[in-house]
Amino acid sequence: MKKLQYASRWFIWNILSKSFNALYLRKKYNYSLTPDSQRFPRPPFLVVANHGTFFDPWMVGQYSPWPFSIMVNDDGFRGKGISQWYLKNIGCIPKRKGASDYKAMKATLQRLKEGYPVCVFPEGQTTWDGETQLLYKGLEKMVIKMNCPLVTVRLRGNFLSKPWWAETIRKGRITIEMKVHDPQEFQGITSDELFEKIKSSIYQNDIKDPQNLQYPFSGVRLAEGLERFVWICMQCGSEDTLQTEGNIIKCASCGKSWEIDAHCRLKGVGEDTNSLHDLKDWADMHREKVKEKTSSGSGVLTVTENVTVQNENDDRTFVNTNTGKAVLTSDTLSLETESGTVSWPVSEIEDCVVQKKDLFEFRHKERYVRFLFNKKSPMKWVYYLRYLKNYEDFEKRGYL
User: Domain-by-domain residue ranges, the chain?
Assistant: First the structure.
């Protein structure tokens, strides 16, 4: 049975997946290994990489003749269809996005024991702003326990090629740097030291990276979709007034505009328009503004109109249940509707993430709730809820 299962995985991986890579991914994303990259060892081994775009595991896996068990967002396992069939049949491991998941870690350990290679993205989701996010700990202990090779992978240009919020793919280049670490390297070091080694090996800042800046990225409609991420005007500070079209971001409140290029650099339109240098700087500005407001601890922190709330059914699919105004204070997240107000205590909200670009998802006790936005930022709600729940402490210690 196990031989038949492996044969099925091998066929799907080396025939179906790699055909898709050759016909679509390579042409669209222009990815390649760096000259100094090493070959994958024989399994079992653990692959750990930074995460900038959806197709990262398949670009990395293109160079492995052995089918990866990829740890993926468990949202892909909901419902029925070709996606769910494919993920199950190549042995993917479902994991709750943006949360620690004991079952996923246990499944990873089991796959390694069975002799499979496993691919994990310890950020838990694609990067928000091109810089590698805080990593979840635990993999370093697994590597030591299993005494297996560790492959660290740094992808450059993957975020710039298709930011999570974007409508279009950019023409550019993705380079994949792979390093193989034999188990002998881990002898005599602590798990914390190994974690730091992993962290430094996969760290990337796509927008600030000089190598990316030297390569000519280009594209069309480069600004469209950006209001999913940023929501504070650089000029007047208004919230939820940003609109995008083509390569232009415009504030409906003050009328100022900015142009964004394929490297995510910004330029004010007009001599009297204030502008930050790039999207990473703008993201950092948002972070500081949110920290200032959450630390004040009083009043309404933020509001978004015309939000559709979705609740999870017993079959794990989400359905629209109501529409209204989302309101956040330091204590409560509420949805105000014509039929009344539904509220969730901030202290009971966990696992805040963005799903499918336009959905803000959180867990309240054992149930998951989603807010669906239309041309407004779900990322705003992740920022506010995380910093209300002491995310700054995680930033100071350097891991999740």
Answer: 2-213, 226-283, 297-392
Cβ atoms 103, 110 nearer than 8 A: no
Residues 6+ positions from 372 with CB-CB distance below 8 Å: 307, 308, 309, 310, 320, 358, 359
Using alpha carbons, select from 66, 55, 48, 49 the residue that is nearest to residue 27: 55
Write the pLDDT tens digit of every residue in 109-125: 999 999 999 999 999 89
The CA distance from 263 to 216, in Å, is 9
Instruction: Report, at the CATH architecture level, how domain 2-213 is classified.
Output: 3-Layer(aba) Sandwich (3.40)
- Domain 297-392 top-level CATH class: mainly beta
Per residue in 201-240, pLDDT (tens digit) is: 999 999 999 999 999 999 999 999 999 999 999 999 999 9
Q: How far apart are CA 73 and CA 398, in angstroms?
A: 23
What single-letter amino acid sits at 144?
I
Give CA angle at 203 (198, 205), nearest 5°.
Answer: 175
Enumerate the H helices of 92-235 as residue ranges: 102-113, 139-146, 158-161, 191-202, 210-213
Q: Are 362 and 368 in contact (CB under 8 A)?
A: yes
48 versus 81: which is more confidently predicted?
48
Return the sign of the alpha-carbon dihedral for residues 262, 378, 294, 304: positive
By the 8 A CB rule, do 132 and 203 touch? yes
